[in-house]
Amino acid sequence: MTVRSDTWKRPAQDAVRVDRSKLALVPAARSAVGIAIPLVAGALSGHLLVGVEAAVGALTAGMASLQGTYRSRVTIMALAAMAFAISAFVGATLGHLQGPDIVITAVWGLAAGLAVIFGQAPSVIGLQAVIGLVVFSQFSFRPEQAAFNALWALSGGALQIALVAATWSLQRFPVERQASSTAYHMLANQVRALAADPSTLLDPAALDELRSALLETQPWGDQAAAAAYQALADQAERIRLELAGIARVRAGLAHSSTIGALAEQAVLDAARELDVAVTASANLLAKVGDALHDGRSVVVDPADRENLRAAIEKLGSIAQSAERPGPTLLTQAVGGLTSLAGQLRTVDHMAAVAAGERPATADTPATDRSSRARWRPPPLTNTTRGNLESLRANLTLTSEGFRHALRVAVTMAMAVAISHLFPLGHGYWLPMTVMIVLKPDFAATLSRGLARSVGTLVGAVVVTLLVAVLRPAPAVLIALTVALYAVSIATLVANYVIYSVSISSLVVILLAFTGSPEPSLAADRAFYTILGAALALGAYVVWPTWERTRVADRLADLVETDGRYGAALVHAWADPAAVEPEALERLRLSARLARSNAEASVARWMSEPTGHGPESPSAVNAEKAQGILAAVRRYVWAALALHGQLPSDGPLRPDLDLLGAQVEEALAAVATALRAGSAAASTYPSLRATQVAFATRLMRATRDGTSGPETTHADMVLLSETDQMVNAVDTLAHLVGLHPQSSPAS
What are phi and psi of 2, to 5 degrees? Predict the structure, then answer.
């Protein structure tokens, strides 16, 4: 087995990098209050251990509070608290029995492993259940005592839920504000990148998080404000599409053929004015992000507004003074920037409505007024049937989720058995480490293993020794518990090493309430942590689910999905009046999800060691995978421009239907070749011949004067973007060994 340099490099980089944008400071403060209340109440009432039991339940629910938004967050917290309490009861009553303990832990591990099939939130609930089981298995209580302890833990979880619900009335749409602010700041960053790299594409997850946040809105919130956030999300999507067209123009100005159509000085002037407009737009978008973050109206610099207006005017003048195709390119820029300016004005207004600083007025765009009138908070759908179907579909060894669940179950059983064999204290540390470290993919397992080992050695070992030597008073232990828990919540997503240090230290402090630990426990915990990480990594090596076996399928899904999206766009241009915007939007979102999945799959694959385990049937190498992703980005670039420039009405172009059908057929052939590992269908439709034939007819109509100025502009956009799309498809076909059909399109 050969280990890539970045196999170790990436976890090391993650260990020292703190993603400040993901620091959960407000949840950390709220959760710290939730754990402080039972501890302080227990100390003041003389029942400190009861307070500790409630604090443990509050700890669990607080960790789960990072999932979901409003009603879903409460649901997730309640399920996590109940799962933890039930597991604590089972562990405290049966954990001292070796045989039942091994079997029950394996069952719990299997269930928690299967939870990854359903998403992040169920995984968190499963993890909390297993931790409750293994931690309380070190005790041996009578059933009534175990039930009493479990109820106190449940009460701590209920307290955290009450605090979450209470904060809803103290903050105005906190989830929506944060998601909207993040989205608009990311849009601003993308705009700033256009001048240096026009091919930049927005992170697929950027707007997905905003849409997810709007699936449910703040209970009892103002309906006009809720509708305004929905409008802000819609405008963000429209801005993203508009940016694709502007990026195409910026790239076109640097192309040699464009310089031949425009005077060189005119090209330089146009590029300069476009960059001025782009900079002003980025500043305006950033101001929107700032305003949404602070919950206020947008405060813009008048100079940015004036720079954008002046740049649009100068670009129009340059376009009028030049010859084709320069004016068409610049007219596209003027149209795109004018639309963007209008969208920014709408966004400013909707941000003010969302902040509640001024009511909606008669100058609100008609689309916003109608959306506000019809919008209602969407209900949370019942997905029980769908979840059962997903579970049944994954109960096979070909499912990565099921393989992960079996791996967790077997490894957890081994960990519990080993912990019973070693005469060391606090053996629960071993299965707990295995459960935390073992993930569905190698990269995450390695990263968690290293982070967990470092965190425990620095946190648990050092804190165990300090507590054993210093023997702090209960008040000091309470203060340390609250502080460490706040750090744990704040850094859970931002930096896992810091989280591991703080949470390991926190567990030691909580156990210290039952009596100062012996210094020898530091060595025991260090031993169990290193052994647990080794067991998790060993389990993955013995029975792996290597990403290399799935990366070709992920890439094939990406290509196939983009084929359907691109074909639908071309068909839409063929008959704009027959377009179904909702269907196009669904295809676009599906393509975005497929791109996110494929890029994540390639990233995981690149973190795996080489020369170990079976290769993918397609034998996709790193160069080919990166080439496919690059070609898809160019294809998506053109597709988004076509989507953003799609006219609401226009002439019929029936000859485009052939090109649309061929785009889908060609990319389906590329997907088949990726899955099969060879170009089984050795040819694919000659898209270039079809596109050239269309371009010839279009240019003939332009020369004959049968196309009006608006039609000519739309056709030039269509010609430019379909040319880019065909180039990308030809590149993809070449990468997998396909050849175009020799017979030209008629």
Answer: -105, 130
